[in-house]
Amino acid sequence: MKKAQVNTWRISLVAAGTGMVLAGTAGAQSSVVLYGIVDGGITYTNNQQGHSAWQATGGNESGPRWGLLGSEDLGGGLKANFKLENGFNVMNGTAMQAGRMFGRQAWVGMSSEKLGAVTLGRQYNTVQDILGSIQISNTLAQYSTHPFDNDDINNTFRTNNAAKYVSPIIAGLQANAMYGFSNSTGFAANNSWSAGLSYTSGPVNLGAAYARMNQPASTAVGAVASDNYYAPSAAVFGTRLVDATRQQIWGAGGTYTFGPATLGLLYTGTDFNMASGGALRFGNYEGSVRYSLSPALIAAVGYTYTQASQGDTSGHYHQVSGGLQYLLSKRTDIYVNGFYQKATAGIGHAWIDGIAAPSSTTSQLAFVAGLRQKF
């Protein structure tokens, strides 16, 4: 689910029985921040396997989470940092990300004002870091993501065993690179790497990134764990995404803000190479507009054209997404979003990402209304 800006409360933690207090000491400052998001609503779908459905759904605009973010100032511009972030289903209280305690993120690292940051643990890859803020789903509900989240910008999977480097910002430019270890003999079995570059200057935000996953989900301990990949039901032309022996994702895009409006353009491509030979390919072309009607009311609309192909077989999806968000306070907002997807006959049926089941036809319509609170 999506990342989001959150307001935080600072808390002091005392380790009972050890005498160790996470507080400022001479020459150094330490802090631990508790933060989170709770998001729930009601989703209507006109066709799920031939029937309409009303469902209580969580994580519509932001995945529910709570987390701890820690930092210790070591002096000279150097800091030690950690982040532990749990994801949960607000409708039934269960843990998300295959039941992991800290399935969204879990990492420790060091950062320097001059040299950048190095982190180790379960993390987002470079495509997610750089292109996630450009996609319209960063403003609207998860249903606005690309079919099957084929480019992983909606965070279907994270990367385990990852070492990441993020450079300092120099003249608006920032580099990002990550390697996820297989944690088994041989570097080719279930490892991952990604790299990208972003540029920010005033109203302009640009980014480009690439990620590669070798033998994803082939082991439980690798960079892309077998319980943390695409569901078996995610398939096009009879080919299941989960059966890929290699996945490559690339993309570029940007946003431009002028006055109350922000325009966005994004392209991503994905190749799923199969053991049987050949590749299932996706190309996603997205345009979006976000507009602040007032300080408290935000409107957004996006359109995505997705082309899918495998050998001589091809098809495409059209998807339109739109919605309103009203800020009741800095921490709380309400929202209403609508989505429509149309697939060609060659695809077989429409299936808006995040909806529980596909349509029995080549079109699907969904609406969601909900409440989100940040802390």
Task: Describe what this molecule looks like in 3D.
Residues 3-27 have low confidence and may be disordered. This protein is an all-beta fold and 375 residues long. The chain has one domain (8-374): Porin, CATH 2.40.160. The protein has a 16-stranded antiparallel barrel. A two-stranded antiparallel sheet has the order 2-3. Strands 14-15 form a two-stranded antiparallel sheet. The relative contact order is 0.15. The two termini are 18 Å apart. It contains one helix and 22 strands. It has one helix spanning 126-131, and strands spanning 8-11, 14-15, 20-21, 30-48, 51-58, 65-75, 78-87, 105-112, 116-123, 159-166, 173-180, 191-201, 204-214, 235-236, 239-240, 244-258, 261-274, 279-292, 297-310, 313-327, 332-343, 363-374.
Layout of helices and strands, plus pairs?
Elements (H helix, E strand, L loop, with lengths): L7 E4 L2 E2 L4 E2 L8 E19 L2 E8 L6 E11 L2 E10 L17 E8 L3 E8 L2 H6 L27 E8 L6 E8 L10 E11 L2 E11 L20 E2 L2 E2 L3 E15 L2 E14 L4 E14 L4 E14 L2 E15 L4 E12 L19 E12 L1
Antiparallel strand pairs: 1-4, 2-3, 4-5, 4-6, 4-22, 6-7, 7-8, 8-9, 9-10, 10-11, 11-12, 12-13, 13-16, 14-15, 16-17, 17-18, 18-19, 19-20, 20-21, 21-22
